Sequence to fold (460 residues):
Amino acid sequence: MNLRSEEVLRLSPDDSSAKAAKGLVVPGKWPRLEFDDAAVWGECQGSGSKPYQVQVDRNGPAFRCTCPSRKFPCKHGLALLLLLAQHPDRFAQAQAPAWVAEWLASRQQRAEKQEAAKEAAKEAAKEAPPGPADPQVAAKREAGRLRRMADGLADLERWLNDRLRQGLAQLSGQPGAWEEMAVRMVDAQLPGLAYRLRRAAGRVGKGEDWPARVLAELGEMQLLIEAFGRQADLRPGTWADVRAALGQTQDREAVLAGGERVADTWWVLGQAVEGEDRLWTRRVWLRGQDTDRYALLLDHAHGGPRFATVFRTGAGFTATLAFYPGNGPLRALVTDEVPQSLSQSLPQSVAQGGLPQAWRSAGLEMVLGQLARDVAANPWQGPLPLLMGQGVPFPEGQDWYLHCADGRLRLRVRDGDGWHLMARSGGSPVALFGEWEGERLRPLSVWTDRLAWTEAVDTP
Fold:
């Protein structure tokens, strides 16, 4: 793993960390800089008397630092790799000290335990008889779950009718009612509806058009209620979408065992990392080079944005994905061990040419047509991926838009990032990838002749 400076900076959790890391690329601040085949490590002098111990597992990369930062990777880890990229002659090859060797050994032990658990699960699956051990018990459990869900949905439908009879203007004075109903949905094993209720509550009173946006949220909930009641009439894919929207996602092992498998070279087009309280969620968006299919890898972490696998926007890797069931499914799992190519750039021939020409030539009408088909297939799935091949970011009033030859898209972007996008484009069309949120496109990456910009991490 020998990353260039721009590749290191793409690993940064936000712009401020990247800026702080650049300020630490001063060899004089590092009394110790060493490496071996497995790791790179160093000591960075901070404000205290004892320097911070910084280390990077080259098989990843994975980071560890003794500084108190909650960001991952921290500025010291990023600075260490920037130093390696810019001043490799400052590093001495040496035997790993105890604090590095112990960390690498613990990572190896965890990896071996995880592999052993996977193998044990595979062996158990081979030895176990097909189907549930006791079908009657499983059927009774499922019937009880569906009964609780049906009762909860009936409760929610009455609540929605009451809200509409009272009028949308009354919603801003009822914050407690939203949370109370959300808790009741969790008790009814409907966490997806609890999330939707809290999201709708957060939109009340925000902006002049909040009644229309909240009414759309309530309409989606009503559609879910009606779809649940028509289970017998739904196709398997639609029923899977309904259950996923209600919060009843299929077990990971079941997806790996029976999900639709698609092998391809996958491009990492963009990532979104968001935190709420101590729960962090990461969405990694992929697109298949040959299949032209989108895929979403969804991860969660507690305490901080520390995820098991590091994905770099602009990288490509070859793998087989298993997709969750549904109509036009997006969410998927990597079926094999994460390939080492995730730590490398795209092939030089690809990187020089940027995105495939077919992706860059897509016009707004084509992109919105595909988006409409995706929404029709599953109206509860969101956000949705959108790659606009040619557009110029430009401000109008308080908003930013992507101006295309046949129309424009409203952007959800911080003002500073908007000007950054505009500067990157130089007034010429660029390819922009992001998440369509129903009304606006949240940019995640911009491509000129190659990857030119990625969005920073959202923090709580």
